[in-house]
Write a structure and sequence with these properties.
The protein has 153 residues and is mainly beta. The protein has a single domain (12-130), classed as Glucose Permease (Domain IIA) (Distorted Sandwich), CATH 2.70.70. It has helices at 23-26, 108-113, and strands spanning 12-15, 31-38, 43-46, 51-56, 60-64, 71-75, 87-89, 96-97, 102-106, 120-125, 137-139. An eight-stranded antiparallel beta sheet has the order 8-4-5-6-10-2-1-11, with no helix packed on it. The protein has a three-stranded antiparallel beta sheet with strand order 3-9-7, with no helix packed on it.
Length: 153
C-alpha cells in the first residue's frame, strides 16, 4: 500500500482512537485511523494530504490523492447535527488541494459548548486498522504525521 503524505490538520495531541466517542470512528471501521484532541481555539483545519476534494460537508471532507487511499478528515463527533454552525468550508468538491492547504475554518470550543466532542479523526479509507503509524503526543498544524521507518538495505 502506498501511504500518502499526511500532515496534522490542526494543533492538538494524538490520543488513542478508542477515546473517540463514536463507535464507527473509534473502531477504525472506515480504515486505518488516528484521533487528535484539538486545541480549543478557533482556527483553520488543513488538508492532511494533497489531491482532489471528493466529498465535502461543513465538518468533514474526503481528499483523493493521485496515488494511494482516499483520506477522510472529520472535525468533531456528531457535528453533522450542528448543521454547519461553527464551521466554514473553504473548498468545494472537485477542487485540487495540496497537503497543508486551508480547507475548513472551525471553532472546537463552540463544538464542545454545543455538547459535541471536538475530537478530530483522520482515516485512510479502505485500509486495515493500524495503517497509520504515528507517534503520540502534541502536534502543530502542518507537522508530518506518518512515522516512516528506514527500509533494510
Amino acid at each position: 500500500m502506498t501511504t500518502p503524505t499526511l500532515l496534522c490538520p490542526y494543533d492538538g495531541s494524538v490520543v488513542p482512537l478508542g477515546d473517540v466517542p463514536d463507535p464507527v470512528l473509534s473502531q477504525g471501521i472506515l480504515g486505518g485511523s488516528l484521533a487528535l484532541d484539538p486545541q480549543r481555539h478557533p482556527g483553520t483545519a488543513l488538508a492532511p494530504t494533497g489531491g482532489t476534494v471528493h466529498t465535502r460537508h461543513s465538518h468533514a471532507l474526503i481528499v483523493r490523492p493521485p496515488v494511494g487511499p482516499a483520506v477522510l478528515l472529520h472535525l468533531g463527533v456528531d457535528t453533522v447535527r450542528l448543521r454547519g454552525a461553527g464551521f466554514r468550508p473553504l473548498v468545494e468538491i472537485g477542487d485540487v488541494v495540496a497537503a497543508g492547504d486551508a480547507v475548513i475554518e472551525w471553532d472546537p470550543a463552540f463544538v464542545a459548548g454545543q455538547g459535541h466532542s471536538p475530537m478530530v479523526v483522520i482515516a485512510l479509507l479502505d485500509t486495515p486498522p493500524g495503517a497509520l503509524p504515528v507517534r503520540s503526543g502534541p502536534y502543530r498544524a502542518g507537522d508530518p504525521l506518518i512515522v516512516r521507518t528506514a527500509r533494510p538495505s
